[in-house]
Write a structure and sequence with these properties.
Blueprint lengths: L5 H24 L7 H24 L29 H25 L4 H15 L2
Helix pairs in contact: 1-2, 1-3, 2-4, 3-4
């Protein structure tokens, strides 16, 4: 499904961060991931802050959001296979977390490039891409 409006892109970003937040909370609670639980809790907190940042960007830029179509962004390009984080072994959990970070960083970089008409939104997405690629 294409993401063709600013609202759709921001909504997808918020969904992405919320889903990752839930995923990391489940990994932190997974007994097999006890050695990395603190890292997963920190990622969960970061995702919660990212949701707040996306919501703030949306509120602050609502009047600037134009009706111009966005092209080249599709939800399915950033989809990950569904999994049960509660049942993942430690190494599989680490790999799944890395895949989520790569996916989020790629989405934010791609979206920033296509949201040039709203420089504040593009800058916020570049910061989010950087934040997610540092993991």
């Amino acid at each position: 499904m294409p993401l063709e409006t600013y609202g759709a892109v921001l909504g997808f970003a918020e969904t992405l961060e919320t889903e990752d937040q839930v995923f990391y909370a489940a990994l932190a609670a997974n007994p097999a991931c006890r050695d990395a639980a603190q890292d997963y809790r920190e990622r969960e907190r970061r995702n919660r802050k990212n949701v707040q940042q996306i919501q703030r960007v949306r509120r602050e830029n609502v009047t600037e959001m134009i009706l111009e179509r966005i092209t080249g962004l599709n939800r399915q390009d950033y989809a990950l296979p569904a999994g049960e984080p509660e049942s993942l072994a430690s190494e599989k959990a680490r790999q799944a977390a890395q895949a989520r970070e790569r996916r989020a960083s790629a989405f934010y970089r791609d979206a920033a490039a296509r949201l040039a008409a709203l420089p504040e939104v593009a800058r916020a997405f570049k910061r989010l891409a950087q934040s997610r690629s540092e993991e």
